[in-house]
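--- STAGE predict ---
source: upstream dedup step, 1 unique chain passed
mode: sequence only
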Amino acid sequence: MPKTSYIFLPLLLFSSFIFGQKKTLQTKFITEKISIDAKLDEAAWTNAELANNFIEIFPTNGKPETPDRKSEVRILYDNEAIYVAAKLYDDPTKIMKELTQRDNFVSADHFGVWFNGYNDGQQEFRFFVSASGVQIDGVYTETFGEDFTWDAIWESETQITDFGWVVEMKIPYAALRFSTEKVQTWGLNLYREVRRDRQQFTWSLLDNKIVNESTQAGLLTGIENIETPTRLFLIPYSSFYLNANKTQKTIGEFKGGLDIKYGINDAFTLDAILIPDFGQTKFDNVELNLSAFEQQFVENRPFFTEGTDLFNKGNLVYTRRIGGEPSTYPTTVDDEEVIDYPLTVNLLNALKISGRTKSGLGIGVLNAVTEKTEATVKKTITNPDNSITTENRTIVVEPLANFNVLVLDQRFNQNSSVSLVNTNVTRNGEFRDANVSALVWDLNTTQNTYNLSGNYKYSYINEFGNQDNRKGYDSYLNFRKTSGKYRFSLAGQYVSDDYDNNDLGINFQTHYHSVYGNVNYRILKPNELFNSFTAGLTQYYEFDNRTGMLQANRLNLVFNTENKKNDFLGFAVNTRPFLTYDFYEPRSENEKRFVQIPEQIQFYFFLSQNYNRKFAIDFNPYFTFLNERERVVYNLFFSPRYRINDKITIIYGLTYNRQNNNTGWVAFDEEDNTIFARRNRISVINTIQGKYTLNNKMNFNLLVRHYWSYVTNKRYLTLLEDGTFADNFAFTENLNQNFNTWNLDLSYSWWFAPGSQVSVMYRNSSSLFSREFERTFNSNFKDAIDNNSLNHTFSISLRYFIDYNSLKK
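--- STAGE serialize ---
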């Protein structure tokens, strides 16, 4: 070997050793009071260790930050909180700083700090603040990504300076989870986004060849012997509602309740709501549902969306069941009709306990109780003298019920976990009870290159009356390559006939098995045309367990790109290359009947322009052609947005969908034949979103939605045993459908103190259904907003955050 090799070989080995080590930042304990004002004039900041040398992760992954955009971060701590200070260098005249409501990333620069109190590479609590001072917080897990429905109480302040901008943050221990060790090492990463160029930087590189982000974090050391204060927070609230419509006088209603957050210790937290009030949650986007399955709605109630990553293990919980529709419908006899059927069940109280031990065992308990609910049935009685009288009776359609979820989640090897999940619904008296258990695993290789995930679920339904108890299972296995330019996944699933998790979960299909495969390619560095580019090919086959018949099949080719102007473009060809057999659309007992579904091909395109521009457009058309005469689907989504200034933005959305010669179930006739129809369906959805943000704590929001959908049946058909049809000229019932919904929410929100909020909302809404109708947009829109149809609600709500430690002082 040349003599120079003896010189460079140790340097090479040393640099390889350093490259393989995690970045480390040591924090210091302080007794000096830190004022959160973005001035950084306390002496403690001068002596704190510096975290710098950020690395670009997008668009050019692995490129060091430039001197004109350098980032300098320091971290301190005391027995109350973690303190973060950041100096972010940039041209102050070019920093983007759009204002918006909390938890909304918009056209603004951002800084973030990510903590993992267990340093287990699997979960991070992420805190961001924009250059305009807007807070954003969430929980990151590899399985579910970033969940911004989680909210914490913390402080931050920002300031634009002559060298860029400054951030100062105080994050109380109540907002974090960590072990009880005397000497602790946390996972740490720091994030910065320069919005105008869509550049993203992190302190510890997030290599885009690897999926899991939290395993690539650096380390925060120096936290020792902290004596955290009692974590007890009370959030009392009071609301006043005025409700009115054309047929009802204005009615006022007061509501009040209490939320409790209690830190059992530094690792476990109790959340409870007593007498809940969800009157100001976002309205549901209700649609005219022609399918064999219920419409699934997004959960908007904060208690059921915040910090629920543990309870999402195995996908067994659909929290809209809690306080949703009653589980039964009244059974009537001759001359009886249901005159009052409640659409929801009142929630009495709910609690969550969640946390993790120092050995990595996560424990989660969710419990909720709903009240006894009755429907009213009217009976018409013809007396001997031919006079008519009526009498009413009530029937319990949902008894007092308890909903419970238990999760045990063991993490290991910095990137893997095995979970045991149980959900249970117990109803008082002679009503259906349900119990579902699942074993869930997510296993990764040491280098995060391959993943094996799956689950086994078992359901037991305890039926009363004439129905038998039922047991079923659902098993799933997925093997993936999760790193590099080329990736793939192979999966299979088997669901038995009697698997049922619908008491606390949601599941549409049973009695099938399926296989799935995907191969995809991505660029890891920008090229002359694209900042990012991915292409994927997916194939899916699904078979009925009882007959072996093909129940579903898909072959999809997808391209997604981001060009050099940061516009997102995508194109896809989705096909159903083989004839399939749908066992659900005929609505037969035990899904024994089926209907043939023809082959189809769909062409899909989308464009989402860079929102940094004041004016931008989202555009998404698709066209579907089926192997059946004149059967075609056209869909168009068009949404322009305009940012008037950093405070005001308006977004309009239009969705137009037309289905020509669609075929679907409509009824059963008197001879118990299954009747389908050839039909045309047109749906039009108009939405308007507007926001006027006065500052980072006060904003107005407007949300308007008008949905109109109608169906005209051209001819009726009788379903035959082989899944084909015969013309039915005897069935002449008018089953055309016309459905209008209108929703308008105008709200004002003011966060007048940390965790404390005043909100004022005006809402009006209508919902109209008819068989006879005009097919013009103008007439339907006028009917929807006619005052005779509208329900009006005006509400004021006050929530006040009380820290037990402040009360002691």
